[in-house]
Amino acid sequence: MISSSDSPGIDSQTPQTEARIEPREESPLFKEFSEKLASFPTPEEKIAHGLQFMRSSISQEGSPRFREFWEARRLVLPFFKENLGSAIRSKLWSEYVELTVEARRLKEILEEQSAFAMEQIDLAIKALENDVTNFAALLASTGEMSFPDASQTITQKANVYILIQRELNLLNTLASRLNSMRKEIIKTDMRIRFKTKFFKRLSDLGDHIFPKRKELIEAVSSEFEKDVDQFISNHFKGDQIVGAPYYALREEIKGLQSMAKLFTLNSGVFTRTRLKLSECWDKVKVLEKEHKKEVLEKKQASSEQRQGVQTKIDELKEKSATMTLRDLNVEIDVISDEMRNVSLHRDDVRFLREELFKLRAPHLAEQEQKAKELELAEKEKIRLKREMIAQVKETISHLSKQGEKMELEALVAAFEEVEAQLAGLEISKMEKQQMERTLRPLKDLIADKKEHSLLNLSEDDKKTLENLRVVLQQKKQRRQEIKDQLESYRKSLGGSNLDFEKAMQIRELVEQEKERLDKANASIEEIEQKIAEL
């Protein structure tokens, strides 16, 4: 026999206790179990079937069926009092006790999990309550809204929509959190009284969120439907489209449809506006189809015109290689004028212009090549000029250093050569002045050497030099008189009151004066040479 210590629940579970349990509606699974339990003939089979049902009640996936477990335990317990073998009773009782302990342990674990879940739900509800209480501050801290892809209709009233939708977005977030917590409470195992308290708190929060949200939804829905109706009345008169091109209205309709998805509209307004915009879209598509048909017809006509122009371009292409760019441009201008006088599609115009540009391309490439060659030549010229300037500077520097040691004749010859090189350089006025400043010390050195040479001349050489200078001065005066007389004759020839004979006489005099001038110049040059030699 089983001792009282091994079966603590047998004596305590009396028929009176069973009578106090209120009848509850049984599940189909438990009814099936009860019927099958009654069909077994022996207590061992009934207990084994009950234990199997108890095990399946707490070991199934999902939430354990504790109610069915305890009901099955209550039904199986009396069968242990019937006539059973000692070994079988002990084995079945051990399994019975083990399942009972397992169920209680599992229930404790689930109760702990439930308590943790309740604590988290409570924290979430408190956070939501705090957000609802501080709704104004929370709304002020939200970021600015913008509608980057909004239609023109919405953009004109963007401030109105932003003001409403910004608040709606926050309310939608709060409502979504509230609904999520409702679902979480429903699926969390806890006592009914706790669920009732949570639902009461959520209901109070809903009284602050949903009426205001509904009011704002009605406001934004009313504004949107009014704007859509205004847009339709402005641009759609029956089957006619007015006020804007069809492609602009097409984009506007797409923008309004996207805004309908962005705004929180009630279902009625969303459906009505969607149907209205769909009707407008169908009208736009009909007009677009007609436009495409018209464009296709124009393209076909343009293609015929293009063939004629293309023929002339091909003819010009055959002889363009032998033509100058100027003549080619004239022919191209003629073809361009013809293109402007015929109706061509923009694609055909673009194609024909590209063909005309191809005709110019070889000539333009040749011009570009010549320009590059000129540029290179100019760079080479500049390089050579810099080299010559550097060479002249180096020569001047050398003469400045070695001039004291050089003979006067060699120094003068070198100086004249430098001046000749400087005169041949194409340099700016400022550069020329800088070069002349570097020559001044050489000029002073040459002058000093000449003065020194004069001081060392003999008395006869000095007298001869003085006489030569006097003769030179007289020769220069005579040369000036000849130049003045020659200029007078030239002015006389320029007059219109001379007869033929007089003009011939003056021309003879001009020739005579030129001969006298040449002789005077040669004489002056000879005297200057003699002076230089002294």
The radius of gyration computed from the alpha-carbon positions, rounded to a whole number of angstroms, is 60 Å
Q: From the structure provided, what is the oligomeric state, counting identical versus distinct chains?
A: single chain
Helix-residue proportion: over 70%
The major sheet is characterized as: 2 strands, antiparallel
Strand order of the largest sheet: 1-2
Can you walk through the features of this model?
This protein has 18 helices and 2 strands. The longest helix is centred in the last third of the chain and has 57 residues, at 346-402. Strands 1-2 form a two-stranded antiparallel ribbon. It is mainly alpha-helical and 534 residues long. The model is unreliable at 1-23 (pLDDT under 50). Helix 6 (86-133) packs across helix 10 (192-235). A hairpin with a 2-residue loop joins strand 1 and strand 2.
Can you give keywords for this protein?
534 residues, mainly alpha, two-stranded antiparallel ribbon, 2 strands, disordered N terminus
Give a short summary of the structure:
With 534 residues, the chain is mainly α.
What's the structural blueprint in terms of helices and strands?
Blueprint (H helix, E strand, L loop, with lengths): L7 H5 L2 H6 L7 H12 L3 H17 L6 H11 L9 H48 L1 H7 L10 H4 L2 H30 L4 H44 E2 L2 E2 L4 H17 L4 H54 L4 H17 L4 H57 L5 H17 L4 H27 L3 H36 L5 H34 L1
Antiparallel strand pairs: 1-2
Helix pairs in contact: 3-4, 4-5, 4-6, 6-9, 6-10, 9-10, 10-12, 11-12, 12-13, 12-14, 13-14, 14-15, 14-16, 15-16, 17-18
